[in-house]
Design goal:
Structural class: alpha/beta
Strand order of the largest sheet: 1-2-3-4-5-6-7-8
Helix content: 25-40%
Strand content: 5-15%
Order of helices and strands: EHHEHEHEHHEHEHEHEHHHH
Largest sheet: 8 strands, parallel, barrel
CATH class: Alpha Beta
Shape: globular
Number of helices: 13
Number of strands: 8
Radius of gyration: 20 Å
């Protein structure tokens, strides 16, 4: 257990990264109500939506309406994904606090996901950054497949650092290292985070894990050990990468907060309020969610003894 209550910052991404993959359209009023609910949970940042073409992501075609109508809580950063200058202009007109730019560090994944080469993505983002830099809006860059590509395998640490340097040279405020398809493992995460933090002490680093192979929580602890204090997570464990077979959702917010609180970290997040909001998801999206905490409850959510125990059971049973 951590002796000191180290402060960690949890950044909720379900309403963008989660909803964009859902086949059922979540109505605008319901999105707004959920963001408003999440704003009361203690998150450092909420990724609300995406200013991508409605044809590309119809699930988030109401981006302007959502951003204009949410109730913003002081101290919470409201960020959005933008793919190009047009998206950035739409976002800026909606009063966002931050824009998030996403590209892949593997050529194959970038071509599959964004339909362009990495150099084309970088050139496009250079234009976006030049527009946003004239305002007070912060700029974050999310580097996908930073810990492995489902088509190319491992991405060398040197390649990750090279791309971080290119964006650092453009004076971005933060970089998110994304385990897009759940290929990361703890010692790899620790090494990458340690080197990135050492080389770029002026950048805010966020880690974005997926739980595809069940290692998201272990990877989080490895990143913390390397000095990282910001983490993306998704309510209910929603999300996933459509360009990687079997890639399930992001690390589940309530599971992440539950673990960190048990280990003595200060997340600033109200877990009970998070669970109340997570319980709304199955109705909104029309199916169950991966969250184990939502199903089983917190570790010390106790249950009454079975009523038939006092009189003795008809047969002995043993559960291990």
């Amino acid at each position: 257990m951590s002796e000191a209550k180290k402060r960690l910052y949890i950044q909720e991404v379900a309403t963008r990264d989660g909803f964009q993959n859902e086949s059922r359209f979540v109505e605008t009023d319901a999105k707004i109500a959920l963001v408003n609910g999440l704003s009361q949970c203690g998150f450092a940042k909420i990724e609300v939506t995406s200013f991508t073409s409605p044809k590309a992501i119809p699930a988030l075609r109401d981006a302007e309406a959502v951003m204009h109508r949410i109730t913003r809580k002081p101290g919470v950063i409201y960020t959005v994904l933008v793919p190009n200058v047009r998206g950035a202009e739409r976002a800026l007109s909606s009063g966002v606090d931050e824009v998030n730019l996403v590209m892949s560090l593997s050529e194959s994944h970038n071509r599959s996901n964004l339909r362009m080469t990495r150099e084309q993505s970088f050139a496009q983002f250079t234009e976006v950054i030049s527009v946003v830099a004239k305002t007070d809006v912060a700029i974050n860059v999310s580097l996908s497949t930073a810990m492995g590509c489902p088509m190319e395998g491992d991405v060398p640490v040197e390649e990750v650092l090279r791309w971080i340097q290119r964006f650092a040279d453009l004076n971005v405020h933060g970089v998110t290292l994304c385990d897009t398809t759940g290929m990361a493992f703890p010692s790899q995460v620790h090494n990458l985070c340690f080197q990135a933090k050492r080389a770029f002490s002026g950048l805010d680093f966020t880690l974005h894990f997926h739980n595809t192979r069940g290692m998201a929580l272990a990877n989080t602890l490895a990143a913390i050990d390397a000095g990282v204090d910001r983490f993306d997570s998704s309510l209910g464990g929603l999300g996933g990468c459509p360009y990687a077979p079997g890639a399930t959702g992001n690390v589940c917010t309530e599971e992440l907060v539950h673990m960190l609180e048990l280990d003595g970290y200060d997340t600033g997040v109200d877990l009970a309020a998070v669970l109340d909001n997570a319980a709304l998801l199955p109705h909104l999206i029309g199916h169950d969610v991966p969250s184990q905490i939502l199903k089983a409850g917190r570790r010390l959510d106790l249950h009454p003894m079975a009523t038939d125990v006092a009189g003795g059971l008809p047969e002995q049973r043993a559960f291990v």
